[in-house]
Amino acid sequence: MIIQYSIHQVSPFSALRSRKSPVGTMKELNSILTAFAESQHNGEKSFLATVVNVQGSTYRQPGARMLITSTGEMVGTISGGCLENDILEHTHVSIADGKPIVVTYDTTAEEDIIWGFGLGCNGVVKILIEPLNSDNPLNPLAFINQCFHNQQLGIIATVISVEGTVNVQVGERLTLKLDHSINTDIQEAYLTNILTKDARTCLQNQNSSFHKYQLELSKVDVFMEFIQPPPHLIIFGAGRDSVSVAEFAKALGWRVTIVDCRANEVSNQRFPMADEVMLTRKEILHEQMCINNYISAVVMTHNYLDDLEILKMLIPTNISYLGCLGSKKRIAKLLQDLSTQGVKYTQKELQKLHAPIGIDIGAHTPEAIALSIIAEIQAVLANRGGGFLKHRTEPINQPNPVREIEI
């Protein structure tokens, strides 16, 4: 079912329990996954609201989610706080039959400023609302949880609009994992085949996109969402200044590993927020580490010989980000000593080394330095320059590509 929404005034004082929105999409997703598991344990009914399409300027982008439980608790956000109460009402009224719906909020009209939600975004947002069943193999949260747990990529292809005569329903979907395993409840075989092909292309390109399939007697719109596990940050060094870096990374929902080449047992107590604390020695470090292009690393051991050995190991890898604490003079000496040892690196390999590390924000305290480091990693992972948004000439959020396919 698709609802072209007629905007009306909603009281901001609706009775509900709402958790504070976590910082960062990954942490928000982790909070939603945790809350869903708790709701299932407590026998509560749950609903999921997902932004599946936007036009113009909107607060959240496609893929943003909010979990709503039967007790009125909401985890996550799908707007700046303006639409959440109305979405809650829809879970009580509009999907009593248990079928997913898509609600469209159009805030481009000037009347919205007076009569509507006051979003002030001048855009259109489409939100899929669906009941959740933990036993359903196509439950999107279960699929995301598997991708996170197994540290693998995936695609969720969800039908968001159907016109004409075709055996396809809004909310039906197809999922694809990195191992190419497929699961779907879409009955039309020819559509499943083309969806599988397009999902594999999205997985290869590692991006989300919208697909408009023009059939002979109907039209089906599908949101292909690229799912990836949280960034994995490895911090080499277990000093007190590493604590702030780890805390900021966890605040974003990243996976954090601490590597202590001093093998100090105190590090276990110093980093309770870390997912893993590795106590080791630099001589055997290369035997214990497996670096891939989903990993970011910060080298801040404050020990020259340790840094030398770690950089020797990391620079040749396909790591997504590599930063090293220290002055330009110190970094130059490290690279010169590596060269003296006969270690050869390509210019491309050296370009991924960020040293001195961090964005120039005038940081001097451990907390400010950690902020500049995490901000730089975020910018690199998002392929952004890290400058002032007021100087950006392109849209802040790049729209997902739209593909029109005739079958």
Describe this structure as you would to a colleague.
With 407 residues, the chain is an alpha/beta fold. The strands form three sheets. A seven-stranded mixed beta sheet has the order 1-6-7-3-4-5-2. Helix 6 (240-251) crosses helix 12. The protein is built from twelve helices and 19 strands. Strand 11 (209-214) and strand 12 form a beta hairpin.
From the structure above, extract its key features.
single chain, 407 residues, alpha/beta, seven-stranded mixed β-sheet, 12 helices, disordered N terminus
Oligomeric grouping of the chains: single chain
| Distance between the amino and carboxyl termini | 23 Å
Number of helices, counting only DSSP H or I runs of 4 residues or more: 12
Decide which structural class fits the backbone: alpha/beta
Shape: elongated
User: For the residues shown, what is the average pLDDT?
Assistant: 87
Strand-residue fraction?
Answer: 25-35%
Strand line-up of the largest beta sheet:
1-6-7-3-4-5-2
Helix share bin: 25-40%
Gyration radius, in Å: 24 Å
Number of strands: 19
**Can you summarize the main beta sheet?**
7 strands, mixed
Poorly predicted spans: 1-24, 111-118
Short structural description:
It is built from twelve helices and 19 strands. The chain has 407 residues and is α/β, with parallel strands linked by helices. A seven-stranded mixed β-sheet has the order 1-6-7-3-4-5-2. It has a six-stranded mixed β-sheet with strand order 10-9-8-12-11-19.
